[in-house]
């Protein structure tokens, strides 16, 4: 996830204050210098950094803070509040049309992730609102953009309106809108063309589409990896087209994240979503307060819980809890769990959303190797149904058969079964409310 270095640097700057009993104005100044450097290194816009540090400093040197019993804590709170403000203060939801369809137009440079985001958004709307969207393929310039959207449409079972690459995007949108009205789709998602750079022809075309489609939202999709350039792009799109929101993609990579921190202040347009991976489920609603908390290394339990709720089936979760209590968790459940957890994204990113976790020594070394997961799955697939349901059946000769069948050594099979039994025991204890379990730290 982005912001790793920034988080570390900010925590260092603030932890120095924590160690002091009494905090002086000079201490605050020193901390602010470090915070300023950390932000600049994360590629945050200079003016945004200046405004932010000025606000924090003014509040932090106020006597009621420095003279308080816990000045360091108060200052962390101020930093958190001001960072939230920089990110936009409030969560801004999608604007909906009072009568259907709500029209959402995606704009941005080529490769920013517009087409992918259109698919993610369609999935999100279907999941959260049972929506029936129509997607319009208006990107007639990028080779394969139309096919890409159609593939997404097939995966999601969402209709995609296209007229190939020979008709003008303006005409495509006109006809697509007519179809959506006829079919009573509640959302229309328009994927438009991007260019490598902003040019006049592109802007003219987008303005014409805007006129015809009368969108409720014009969402600018920008790539976090392009840093300050993303901010400049956002600024000019906003001036020429008037955007209603920003989507920042590719925040999963090791981007420095500065764009995410600057865009709101520079353009005034709210960030509405962030893209955190290539999969259709890798979309998060942007909440300034939660993002601030994550950047400051204080975790983001709410997003973690929502992610889990989104990806989890409640009935299944209850069944599973029951099995844990009864110690009847078997290898079939094990496989299902592996698939579900892997589907939520990299474990190391999930762990960091838990408050305090990113200060846990060794957390940066936690890596779950998908190949290892596949190996474990292969072993389970080599078991008979009876063995999967009853791990106690696994005597040495059965273990040898599983090793041969899954292409693993007997040592690996033994280790996997041992781990499975230990986890099962731990889960049973945890489900009975006993959180003080030796070996818990080894669980990952
Ligand atoms: P478009 O030209 O703006 O339509 O861009 P695409 O939707 O084709 O995306 C360009 C590339 O970025 C594709 O390879 C996508 O898989 C990838 N991509 C899009 N969003 C994300 C994201 O949030 N994270 C990562 N890692 N890749 C993304």
From TrEMBL:
Q: Set out the biological process GO terms recorded for this chain's protein.
A: SRP-dependent cotranslational protein targeting to membrane
Instruction: Report keywords, A-Z.
Output: Cytoplasm, GTP-binding, Hydrolase, Nucleotide-binding, Ribonucleoprotein, RNA-binding, Signal recognition particle
* Binding residues for GTP: 108-115, 191-195, 249-252
Q: Which GO terms describe its cellular component?
A: signal recognition particle
Q: Identify the PROSITE patterns for this entry.
A: SRP54 (PS00300)
List the subcellular locations. Answer: Cytoplasm
- Top-level taxon of the source organism: Bacteria
Q: Where is the SRP54-type proteins GTP-binding domain?
A: 270-283
Give the enzyme's main class according to its UniProt record, as a single word. Answer: hydrolase
> What chemistry does it catalyse, as a reaction equation?
GTP + H2O = GDP + phosphate + H(+)
Q: Where are the transmembrane segments?
A: none
List the molecular function annotations (GO) for this entry: 7S RNA binding; GTP binding; GTPase activity
Chief subcellular location equals: cytoplasm
Q: What is its EC number?
A: 3.6.5.4
Role: Involved in targeting and insertion of nascent membrane proteins into the cytoplasmic membrane. Binds to the hydrophobic signal sequence of the ribosome-nascent chain (RNC) as it emerges from the ribosomes. The SRP-RNC complex is then targeted to the cytoplasmic membrane where it interacts with the SRP receptor FtsY.
Domain comment text? Composed of three domains: the N-terminal N domain, which is responsible for interactions with the ribosome, the central G domain, which binds GTP, and the C-terminal M domain, which binds the RNA and the signal sequence of the RNC.
Which family does the record claim for this protein?
Belongs to the GTP-binding SRP family. SRP54 subfamily.
> How does the record describe its quaternary structure?
Part of the signal recognition particle protein translocation system, which is composed of SRP and FtsY.
NCBIfam families for the chain:
ffh
* Database matches in HAMAP family: SRP54
Official protein name in the record = Signal recognition particle protein
This chain's source organism reads: Enterococcus phoeniculicola ATCC BAA-412
Q: Which gene encodes it?
A: ffh
């Amino acid at each position: 996830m982005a912001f790793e270095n920034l988080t570390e640097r900010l925590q260092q700057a603030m932890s120095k204050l924590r160690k002091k009993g009494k905090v002086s104005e000079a201490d605050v100044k020193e901390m602010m210098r470090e915070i300023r450097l950390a932000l600049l290194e994360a590629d945050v816009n200079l003016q945004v950094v200046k405004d932010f540090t000025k606000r924090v400093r003014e509040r932090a040197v106020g006597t009621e803070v420095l003279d308080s019993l816990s000045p360091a804590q108060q200052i962390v709170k101020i930093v958190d509040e001001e960072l939230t403000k920089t990110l936009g203060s409030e969560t801004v939801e999608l604007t909906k049309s009072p009568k259907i369809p709500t029209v959402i137009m995606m704009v941005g440079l080529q490769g920013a992730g517009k087409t992918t985001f259109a698919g993610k958004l369609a999935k999100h709307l279907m999941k959260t609102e049972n929506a029936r969207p129509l997607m319009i393929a208006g990107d007639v310039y990028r080779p394969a953009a139309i096919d890409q959207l159609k593939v997404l449409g097939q995966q999601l079972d969402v209709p995609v309106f296209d007229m190939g690459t020979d008709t003008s995007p303006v005409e495509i949108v006109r006809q697509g809108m007519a179809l959506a009205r006829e079919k009573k789709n509640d959302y229309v998602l328009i994927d438009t063309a991007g260019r490598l750079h902003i040019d006049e022809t592109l802007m003219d075309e987008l303005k014409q589409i805007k006129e015809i489609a009368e969108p409720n939202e014009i969402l600018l999709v920008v790539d976090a990896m392009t840093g300050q350039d993303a901010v400049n792009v956002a600024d000019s799109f906003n001036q020429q087209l008037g955007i209603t929101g920003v989507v920042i993609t590719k925040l999963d990579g090791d981007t420095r994240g500065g764009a995410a921190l600057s865009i709101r202040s520079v353009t005034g347009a709210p960030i509405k979503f962030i893209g955190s991976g290539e999969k259709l489920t890798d979309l998060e609603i942007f909440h300034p307060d939660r993002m601030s908390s994550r950047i400051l290394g204080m975790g983001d339990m709410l997003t973690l819980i929502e992610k889990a709720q989104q990806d989890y089936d409640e009935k299944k979760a209850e069944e599973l809890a029951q099995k844990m209590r009864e110690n009847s968790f078997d290898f079939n459940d094990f496989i299902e769990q592996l698939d579900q957890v892997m589907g939520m994204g990299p474990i190391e990113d999930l762990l960091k959303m838990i408050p305090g976790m990113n200060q846990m020594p060794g957390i940066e070394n936690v890596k779950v190797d998908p190949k290892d997961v596949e190996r474990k799955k292969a072993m389970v697939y080599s078991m008979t149904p009876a063995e999967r349901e009853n791990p106690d059946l696994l005597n040495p000769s059965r273990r040898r058969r599983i090793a041969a069948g899954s292409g693993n050594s007997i040592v690996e099979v033994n280790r996997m079964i041992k781990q499975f039994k230990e986890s099962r025991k731990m889960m049973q204890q945890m489900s009975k409310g006993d959180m003080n379990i030796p070996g818990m730290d080894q669980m990952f």
